[in-house]
Amino acid sequence: MTKDIATPLRTKEILAKHGFHLKKSLGQNFLIDTNILTNIVDASGVDHETGVIEIGPGIGALTEHLARRAKKVVAIEIDQRLLPVLEDTLSPYENTTVVHSDVLKADLEQLLIDHFSDVKQVKVVANLPYYVTTPILMRFLESKINVQSLTVMIQAEVAERIAAEPGTKEYGALSIAAQYYAVAERTMIVPASVFIPQPRVDSAVLHLEVREEPAAKVKDESYFFKVFHASFANRRKTILNNLTHNLGTKEEKPAIVEALEEAGIDPKRRGETLSIQEFALLSDALYTRLK
Ligand code: SAM
């Protein structure tokens, strides 16, 4: 087996050899701990029949660990300066392909057709750039492309919010948006010391197992999203007040009360106490009255 990229010494050697300077604006915090990498790949459940999409390979620390276990890895990297570095570090791994692109703009459907028509399942695994965590996760979840799971290192606080249960202070619109599409589990907390440079926050690994069907059936998906976003606009307000100010109008207040009654929800409750199923019932009841 070739020497691991993710040791402090080898990482420094690679950066020096290529004269590479890390760019903070691209969220470049590279992993330098092989145990953490093993744990991430374990949590992802990747095996030799899996195709992996990696977002932001950096100098290839996670990519090589994935390549050792997966059928193939396609790594999407935005920073052109890393292409020659990756060509060098990933040369022992023939089952890896680097795509130079912004993951938020890449044609994911085409990527699956081009690279993964011969694999049993596709999984996303990444140590994400923290400045775009949520847009990247939501892009994959909303795109409806056939991805089985996403296992990602992200800011610990964001992982807690995504995996939060109703009634907790972390629970909010982001929890519902993600859990509508996937079962979320925060698997481990990772200290800042395993990165160079060290981020100012703790990190965590989040595993999202994509559901076959969304967690609730609703008449109109985009309206459902509007309803729960409006319900959390001001966390101190009741659900009735939030909906009256952020979804409907003062004149529509009686119709909103009626919809809450139909859904069996006390108008004095706060958004953070409602489950996804309750939001779905509420959304359908509001849809027929306010739309
Ligand atoms: N995977 C490497 C590791 O674990 O050491 C690097 C992870 S680093 C936190 C994030 C990586 O994502 C960087 O290589 C950065 O250049 C890349 N990146 C940032 N924004 C991106 C985007 N929009 N699309 C694709 N890659 C991006």
TrEMBL record:
It catalyses: adenosine(1518)/adenosine(1519) in 16S rRNA + 4 S-adenosyl-L-methionine = N(6)-dimethyladenosine(1518)/N(6)-dimethyladenosine(1519) in 16S rRNA + 4 S-adenosyl-L-homocysteine + 4 H(+). Keywords: Cytoplasm, Methyltransferase, RNA-binding, rRNA processing, S-adenosyl-L-methionine, Transferase. GO terms for cellular component: cytosol. CDD domains: AdoMet_MTases (cd02440). S-adenosyl-L-methionine binds at residues 29, 31, 56, 77, 102, 127. It is found in: Cytoplasm. It comes from the Bacteria. InterPro entries: KsgA/Erm (IPR001737), rRNA_Ade_diMease-like_C (IPR023165), rRNA_Ade_Mease_Trfase_CS (IPR020596), rRNA_Ade_methylase_Trfase_N (IPR020598), rRNA_adenine_dimethylase (IPR011530), SAM-dependent_MTases_sf (IPR029063). The keyword Cytoplasm applies. It is an enzyme of class 2 (transferase). Its EC number is 2.1.1.182. Pfam families: RrnaAD. Residues 36-212 form the Ribosomal RNA adenine methylase transferase N-terminal domain. GO terms for molecular function: 16S rRNA (adenine(1518)-N(6)/adenine(1519)-N(6))-dimethyltransferase activity; RNA binding. The keyword Repeat does not apply. SUPFAM superfamilies: S-adenosyl-L-methionine-dependent methyltransferases. Specifically dimethylates two adjacent adenosines (A1518 and A1519) in the loop of a conserved hairpin near the 3'-end of 16S rRNA in the 30S particle. May play a critical role in biogenesis of 30S subunits. NCBIfam families: ksgA (TIGR00755). Belongs to the class I-like SAM-binding methyltransferase superfamily. rRNA adenine N(6)-methyltransferase family. RsmA subfamily. This is Ribosomal RNA small subunit methyltransferase A. It comes from Alkalicoccobacillus porphyridii. The gene is rsmA.
